[in-house]
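Module 6 notes. Inverse folding takes a fixed backbone as the condition and produces residue identities as the prediction. Think of it as a translation problem where the source language is geometry and the target language is the twenty amino acids. Below is one complete input and output pair. Work through it position by position during the lab.
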């Protein structure tokens, strides 16, 4: 009887499956199964039809499709709502990262001055799509419910839906769309508040689309990206982008132009090209900053130090002082001109510009004072020295302070402020040491 029991136990042990081989097999099988995210991404492609059903308030079949922004997986579909109609339908799709997505139409190819449609879906599933006028590079300079796009209203008003892991921003506009387009994606997990103002974009890109013969054309990918500074990188820090080249003979899509000798592009050859975004190192905004630092922040203070501590080396100190001050003022004026070309007049930026103008005026007064310098023997020379020294010191102080102010407005990485701060600190220490040496000797 004991043998039968031991045999039964031995048989049961042999027939019980071991967990480790089963787990290994399960892992191997599951590794070949597509994840929901990857399958959803594969489903939303130009090779597959768009199936949103009643989620979008207009017909989305027959729209041209192209990968608008590969690095962010933006897909743009667009086309005329009906043959002979002046109503155009657009659907922009992108991954849902918890931020907003937007597409804008620009008269210049830059983000500033564009009219855009932006949309987002909250964690509770509520979607919001609104038009924005991109008047500058900050949130308050891009007011909601403003812009130049003739968007459809009522039941066909702009809408955004979330399906799977992607957002679909759909809208219709009347009239001929502009062919320069800009794209932006908001920071993950950061949505507009009750005032509707958009947080500064996380990334942006620019490109063009082509319209031909009353139907929509496809396109090639737009490029862009970086730190999102902006437009004025040639653009928001954005905006950063250069001027796009358009294919020769690109057509406006006006059927009345047929037979007038224009070279037309077919839908298959339509292009969408982009320029690099805010990540370009010497964007327009950064060129302005570099010029300001070199001119007002380095050369002009160096000229002051040459005149202060090297008068024993006569006449070297005078010519070195004039050369440093003159070159610094020229570079500084170029920085101010570059700053005014950024097309942003919002409150803090306007104050930054005003301080820059005051510094330029101070530099001009110094140049005029040089031309009206009295002789050393005259009594007026004492008052001239007082004027020349104090106006110069005020201009230098304002210039350095405005550089730090501009760095804070530009939302640059803190390393930029740290580097210039270290330079100013070293310069101040050297200045104090030389001042003590001058006092003793």
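Target side of the pair, the amino acids:
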């Amino acid at each position: 009887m004991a043998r039968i029991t031991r045999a039964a136990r031995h048989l049961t042990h042999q027939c019980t499956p071991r967990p480790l081989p089963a787990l290994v097999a399960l892992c191997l099988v599951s590794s070949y199964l597509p994840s929901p995210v990857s399958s959803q991404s594969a489903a939303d492609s130009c090779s597959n039809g768009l199936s949103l059903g009643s989620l979008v308030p207009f017909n989305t079949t027959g729209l041209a499709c192209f990968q608008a922004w590969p690095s962010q997986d933006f897909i743009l579909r667009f086309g005329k709502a009906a043959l002979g109609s002046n109503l155009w339908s657009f659907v922009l799709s992108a991954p849902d990262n918890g931020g907003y997505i937007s597409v804008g139409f620009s008269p210049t190819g830059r983000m500033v001055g564009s009219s855009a449609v932006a949309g987002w879906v909250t964690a509770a599933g509520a979607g919001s799509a609104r038009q924005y006028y991109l008047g500058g590079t900050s949130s308050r300079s891009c007011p909601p419910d403003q812009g130049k796009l003739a968007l459809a209203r009522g039941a066909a008003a702009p809408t955004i839906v979330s399906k799977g892991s992607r957002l679909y921003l759909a809208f219709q506009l009347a009239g001929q769309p502009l062919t320069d387009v800009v794209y932006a994606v908001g920071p993950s997990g950061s949505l507009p508040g009750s005032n509707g103002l958009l947080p500064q974009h996380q990334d942006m890109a620019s490109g063009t689309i082509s319209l031909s013969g009353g139907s929509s054309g496809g396109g090639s990918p737009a490029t862009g990206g970086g730190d999102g500074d902006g437009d004025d990188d040639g653009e928001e820090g954005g905006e950063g982008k250069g001027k796009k080249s358009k294919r020769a003979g690109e057509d406006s899509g006006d059927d009345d132009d047929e037979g007038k000798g224009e070279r037309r592009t077919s839908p298959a050859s339509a292009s969408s090209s982009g320029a690099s975004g805010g990540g370009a190192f010497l964007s327009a905004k950064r060129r302005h900053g570099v010029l300001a630092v070199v001119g007002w922040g380095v050369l002009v203070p160096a000229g002051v130090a040459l005149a202060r501590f090297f008068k024993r080396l006569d006449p070297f100190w005078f010519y070195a002082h004039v050369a440093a001050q003159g070159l610094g003022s020229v570079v500084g004026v170029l920085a101010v001109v570059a700053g005014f070309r950024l097309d942003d007049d919002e409150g803090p930026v306007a104050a930054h510009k005003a301080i820059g103008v005051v510094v330029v005026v101070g530099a001009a007064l110094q140049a005029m004072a040089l031309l009206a310098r009295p002789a050393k023997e005259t009594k007026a020379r004492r008052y001239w020295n007082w004027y020349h020294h104090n106006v110069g010191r005020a201009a230098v102080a304002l210039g350095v302070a405005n550089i730090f102010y501009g760095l804070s407005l530009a939302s640059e990485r803190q390393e930029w402020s740290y580097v210039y701060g270290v330079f100013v600190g070293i310069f101040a220490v050297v200045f104090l040491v030389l001042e003590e040496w001058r006092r003793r000797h």
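Reference fact for the lab report: Residues 380-409 form the longest helix (30 residues).
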